[in-house]
Design a protein that fits this description.
With about 290 residues, the protein is α/β, with parallel strands linked by helices. About 40% of the residues lie in helices and about 15% in strands. The chain has twelve helices and ten strands. The strands form two sheets. A six-stranded parallel sheet has the order 7-6-5-8-9-10, sandwiched between helices. Helix 5 links the parallel strand 5 and strand 6. Helix 1 runs parallel beside helix 2 and helix 8 packs across helix 11. The longest helix is centred in the last third of the chain and has 17 residues. The model has no long low-confidence stretch (mean pLDDT about 95).
C-alpha cells in the first residue's frame, strides 16, 4: 500500500516480539509509526501480551470471538483465501485415484494429533462406515514423532474394525495440491478442540465441499448451521457422528451446502475482503487527529 502523503507509517504486528520492538521504535526511538496488532486468540491472553496489547494504536480481530478477548478492536477482519486457486483443483494427487468410484468421501485436514480431533474423526467415520458401504475417509496431515503412537493406535483401531481399505492416509500435501484434495472430498470435518482461526473450512467450502466443524476458532463465523454445514461442540464425538450421518443419510441437502459454502466464502473470506478490511483500519488511523 502506498505510504506517500501519509502522516506516519504503520507497523503491523502479530507476535509478542514484534509488538515489543514496535513499541521500542515508537516510544523510545520516537520513530513516526503507529502499531496495528492482529489477534486470532480465542482465550484471554496471558499477562505479558496483555501489557503489550494495551499499547497498540489499533487492534484487528480475526473473528467475532477473538474480538471479545482484546481491547480497542477497530475491526473484525477474517483471513481470506485465494478463490481462484481453490475453485479450480487443477493439480492431481495420485494417491487419491484409488478412491475413484468408491462413493462418498469424507476428509480431515490438519496435523494428526488429539488437538485436531483426528481420533474423533476416525471413530465417527467407523460408525458411518458400518451404516454406509459407499463411504470412504481421507486423513491429510503429518504425525510428528511425538504423535506417531497416537497415529498407530488409530490405524490399529481401523484395522480391528475391518475398514483399512476404506481409509486413505496422506502425509503432508503441498499447498499447490490442496485444491485437488478438497475437490476429491464431499465433506470435510474440522473437529479441532482449539483453533486460533483455522483456514480449512473456508478452503474446503470454496472448493465446493460441505463442512462439519466444531465450535472453535472462527468456525462459527464461517459455518451457518444448516445452510452451508453443521456445527458441533468441541470434543463431542456423538454430535460429530450424528452430524455426519445426517448428511450421509440425506437428511440435509449436500448440493445446497456446497453451493452456499462457496457463496459465503466469496462474500466474506476472500483475500480481497481481507485486504479491504485491513485497508479500512489503516485509513481510519491515518484520518484520526
Amino acid at each position: 500500500m502506498p505510504i506517500f502523503n501519509r502522516p506516519f507509517r504503520i507497523w503491523h504486528v502479530r507476535r509478542n516480539n514484534e509488538m515489543f520492538w514496535a513499541i521500542v521504535a515508537r516510544d523510545l526511538l520516537h520513530l513516526n509509526v503507529r502499531i496495528v496488532f492482529t489477534s486470532a486468540a480465542i482465550r484471554r491472553h496471558s499477562w505479558y501480551p496483555r501489557q503489550l496489547i494495551k499499547k497498540m494504536d489499533a487492534v484487528i480481530a480475526c473473528s467475532s470471538k477473538a474480538a471479545s478477548f482484546v481491547p480497542h478492536v477497530y475491526r473484525v477482519v477474517p483471513h481470506g483465501v485465494d478463490l481462484q486457486r481453490f475453485e479450480h483443483g487443477l493439480a492431481t494427487v495420485p494417491e487419491l485415484a484409488r478412491l475413484a468410484g468408491r462413493g462418498r468421501v469424507v476428509g480431515i485436514v490438519g496435523r494428526v494429533r488429539p488437538e485436531k480431533g483426528t481420533d474423533l474423526f476416525v471413530r465417527s467415520m467407523l460408525e458411518s462406515m458400518r451404516l454406509y458401504d459407499d463411504v470412504c475417509a481421507v486423513i491429510v496431515g503429518k504425525a510428528t514423532a511425538k504423535y506417531q503412537p497416537f497415529k498407530t493406535q488409530l490405524i490399529n483401531l481401523i484395522s480391528a474394525a475391518g475398514f483399512s481399505d476404506r481409509f486413505l492416509w496422506l502425509n503432508e500435501v503441498g499447498l499447490e495440491n490442496m485444491p485437488a484434495v478438497y475437490h476429491a472430498l464431499d465433506i470435510v470435518c474440522a473437529p479441532a478442540l482449539y483453533e486460533g482461526f483455522g483456514l480449512v473450512p473456508i478452503e474446503a467450502m470454496v472448493s465446493g465441499t460441505a463442512v462439519v466443524a466444531s465450535k472453535t476458532g472462527a468456525y462459527e463465523d464461517m459455518v451457518v448451521e444448516g445452510k452451508n454445514g453443521l456445527l458441533v461442540d468441541c470434543g463431542d464425538q456423538n454430535q460429530l457422528q450424528n452430524a455426519l450421518i445426517s448428511i450421509l443419510d440425506g437428511g440435509t441437502d449436500l448440493a445446497s451446502f456446497k453451493a452456499e459454502g462457496q457463496k459465503i466464502v466469496r462474500e466474506k473470506f476472500s483475500l480481497q475482503s481481507e485486504f479491504d478490511g485491513i485497508s479500512k483500519v489503516y485509513e481510519q488511523l491515518w484520518s484520526e487527529k
